[in-house]
Amino acid sequence: MMAKQRTSSVYQRNAFAPGLLAAAVLFLAPVLMGGDWFTVVLFVAAIFAVIVGWFAIQARQWWWLPVFVVIAVIWNPVFPFPFTGPVWTAAQPVAAVVFLVAGALIKVKRA
């Protein structure tokens, strides 16, 4: 019996892996709030926002850029905003979902 030949995908999703990693950290973020580990969350969210934003630029999907600029600024660890409370806690999983959706939708055609 001959093995079925697999055809490669026409598109590649470069933002998928960084989006998935950022989402995993942001889903854990409410548990880490108030501790020293939350600084790691800020670094991960800001760095991966820049990375996913760059992949959006490469894919010519410019509408994602303002979204990830906002995430990079709000979650920046260098000059952190003193956010607290239920709105900030709820913003973590919302940003995680944004990373997941962007990771799935940002794609470029393979050469």
Helix count equals: 4
What Rg do the Cα atoms give? Answer: 16 Å
How large is the share of residues in beta strands? Answer: under 5%
If you average the pLDDT, what whole number results?
A: 94
Low-confidence stretches: none
Number of domains: 1
Main β-sheet, in a few words? 2 strands, antiparallel
> Which class of secondary structure composition applies to the elements?
mainly alpha
Shape: elongated
Q: Helix proportion of residues, in percent?
A: 55-70%
Number of strands: 2
- Strand order, largest beta sheet: 1-2
Name the helix and strand elements from N-terminus to C-terminus, one letter apiece: EHHHHE
What distance separates the N and C termini?
32 Å
Structural account:
The chain is mostly helical and 111 residues long. The protein has one domain (13-109). The chain has helices at 16-32, 38-58, 64-74, 85-105; strands at 11-12, 108-109. The chain has a two-stranded antiparallel ribbon with strand order 1-2. It is elongated and about 60 Å long. InterPro entries: DUF6804 (IPR046548). It holds the Pfam family DUF6804. The chain crosses the membrane at residues 12-31, 37-57, 62-81, 87-106.
Task: Briefly say what this structure is.
The chain is 63% helix and 4% strand. It is mainly α and 111 residues long.
